[in-house]
DNA sequence: GAGGGTTGGTTCAGATTTTGAACTTACTGT
DNA sequence: ACAGTAAGTTCAAAATCTGAACCAACCCTC
């Protein structure tokens, strides 16, 4: 199979480019791990869609299914490291949405209580990178 | 109309929760402003979908349509401030995708040349907020 | 031990959306 | 006059989503 060079954004959107997947991730981040909890907290998701997305997320290594009862079979879904990494994406969406649409929810730092943004950061130089300096390059 | 309190993430996904919209934003960020350019660079997008999404983005105030020729009617699409704000979401997706899937593209700081992450930042304290301290709260 | 509730799903038909291909209109350039 | 380009529109077929109902296996209470 000739592996085509694909934009990482397009790759990511193959998995999370739909209405529901990131809402599921949001609630898994909140600690809702069971089917029934997700069904209640992910606003109006049809159970068939929830089951399908959890399967896709499991295939992608974003969640792991852990069976906490064998009879009857009962599973819960836990985010992997890869899954927790999506938290920043969810955070970025929340930050953007709050800034440009009125909303009753904010992301805050639990310690200082202040509102948060999501920004670019260079781990090597240990400083922020303003958007104007960001480029997407081949390597 | 009874305005229900909605999660900002869900609000954002109403607009950008699909396969194409963030790819269009990505290319507008790159400076591709015309229909024909987007059609070529947004990998295989059907023109009907492109036209539809540009309409939705315009309605949402993410892009403005500027007519650069009246006869024949020719428009280009420019990101507003709100639209540029979505850059961080695109960046977060790219960063995540690179970290957890192999890819040939990276986000770098144009100045120092180093790879970038997307992180939480408290503008009041001027410091980063680790993911563990981030909470979503009502205000 | 009968009935009711919970959990983690599946099934299915109908509605909606997406897709790909072709087509259109109004120019421009040769 | 002819080919080409730009910015879309149109349409039928295919894929996907939605909502509602259903199910099996438990647990609890009476």
Structure description:
- The structure is a homodimer of 139-residue chains.
- Chain A is an alpha+beta fold and 139 residues long.
- The first copy, chain A, has one domain: Arc Repressor Mutant, subunit A (Orthogonal Bundle).
- Helix content of chain A is 41%, strand content 22%.
- Chain A has helices at 8-16, 21-29, 35-41, 47-59, 81-85, 87-100; strands at residues 63-69, 74-79, 105-109, 117-122, 127-128, 134-138.
- In chain A, strands 1-2 form a two-stranded antiparallel ribbon. A two-stranded antiparallel sheet of chain A has the order 4-5.
- In chain A, a hairpin with a 4-residue loop joins β1 and β2.
- The first copy, chain A, starts with 7 loop residues before the first helix and ends with a strand.
- At the A-B interface, α1, α2, α5, α6 and β3 of A face α1, α2, α5, α6 and β3 of B.
- Chain A binds a DNA duplex (30 and 30 nucleotides) through residues 19, 34-36, 39, 46-51, 69, 71-75.
């Amino acid at each position: 199979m000739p592996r085509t060079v694909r934009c990482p954004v397009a790759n990511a959107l193959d998995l999370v480019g739909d209405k529901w997947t990131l809402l599921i991730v949001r609630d898994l981040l909140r600690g809702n791990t069971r089917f029934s909890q997700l069904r209640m907290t992910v606003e109006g998701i049809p159970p068939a869609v929830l089951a399908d997305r959890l399967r896709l997320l499991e295939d992608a290594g974003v969640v792991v299914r852990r069976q906490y009862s064998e009879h009857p079979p009962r599973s819960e879904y836990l985010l992997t490291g890869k899954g927790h990494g999506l938290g920043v994406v969810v955070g970025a969406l929340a930050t953007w949405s709050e800034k440009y649409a009125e909303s009753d929810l904010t992301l805050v730092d639990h310690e200082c209580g202040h509102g948060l943004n999501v920004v670019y950061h260079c781990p090597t130089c240990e400083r922020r990178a303003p958007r104007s300096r960001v480029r997407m390059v081949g390597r």
